[in-house]
Amino acid sequence: MILINENFLKLQDNYLFSTIAKKVEKYSQENKNNKIIKLGIGDVTRPVVPVVIEAINKATKEIGTKTGFKGYGPEQGYSFLRKAIIENDYKSRNIILKENEIFVSDGAKCDCGNILDIFSEKNTVAITNPVYPVYLDTNIMCGRKIIYLPLTEKNNFIPEFPKEKVDIIYLCFPNNPTGTVLNKKELEKWVQYAKENKAIILYDAAYEAFITEENIPHSIYEIEGAKEVAIEFKSYSKTAGFTGLRCAYIVVPNELMGYTKKGEKISINKLWNRRTCTKFNGVSYIIQRAAEATYSEEGKKQIKENIKYYQKNAKIIKEGLEEIGFVTYGGKNSPYIWLKVPNKMTSWEFFDEMLEKTNIVGTPGSGFGKCGEGYFRLTAFGTIEDSIEAIKRIKKI
Ligand code: PLP
User: Fold this and answer.
1) Per the confidence metrics, is the pTM higher than 0.90?
2) Which residues of the chain have pLDDT under 50?
3) Are residues 62 and 24 located together in one domain of the fold?
4) How many Å lie between the centroid of ligand 1 and the Cα of residue 109?
């Protein structure tokens, strides 16, 4: 008899996006002439930039030659990419990292789940509410105790320290779904908290490229001492349109230590390296060359253009909503606009009203956790034309 991991039975079915899809499909069938604007998506829509495509083509040709063929690459990622990451994403911000601290992967989603392999199931985990569901579900799968840190208007979307002791803390800033950020002082407090409580912060900076304001950290390592308490997750998905190409990386500093039951200190980096070598065979050479190309002068320029495009959408949506009295959060340093649902409606009631009266699709905040009730997420990943049209429609009602 095969015994299953019964923790999987504790997972709640995630109906959020399938329910949205069903409602939209039904509405479209009944109202064939109405043009629906989809501002619920968390995926990028702009094509991959030319510099990246050139790098893919070049690397593809290269591996078709006798001298350029590549078989298995290093599990942790090719040196050329890890060096480019260190130079461009960190050294430019006065953060010094070593090559062995960077692990290239096929996505931050997998990294967020996989990292849990190296931590005891006895650890207590703190996650924000609302939250990117991956942190929650991956921990339920291993049966860890979970503590929620509300992100609400009351605390200005700044998570407060938990009342009971936690060991693993997930922080995602710029935040998905709220689009809000932590400034340097606020993040410093969390680093200090982690140090005092011998906890580890799993810092998801997948949306770092959307930061526009000064004093908002792009990396947790901008905070002194963070290397002793934090792992950082980065992704090319939203930064460079790699949601389909798949490339990301995590930083596991050499200073970071975990403990055995007996209290012996163990290097987290060594554990993660062991785990990576055992369970992963690296990201394809072609894709790593593609990621490297994002750091060329031309690559940086082309990527910035796409980010600016989305930022413009965010501004149009946020300012348009505020002009007519909506209360919004996020949108300044993030592609997500978190709007407060008016008239005490629930998130789903507002979803239905938006669909019926404006033909706009967003995401009900309650789908990201209890504290998301009463909010609604719109994203800047559509077109400029759709963003303008969406605001026009909302203004009319
Ligand atoms: N982290 C956050 C907060 C996200 O919102 C997403 C995707 O939506 C990811 C990670 C996933 O990134 P990747 O495409 O690299 O798996």
Assistant:
1) yes
2) none
3) no
4) 5
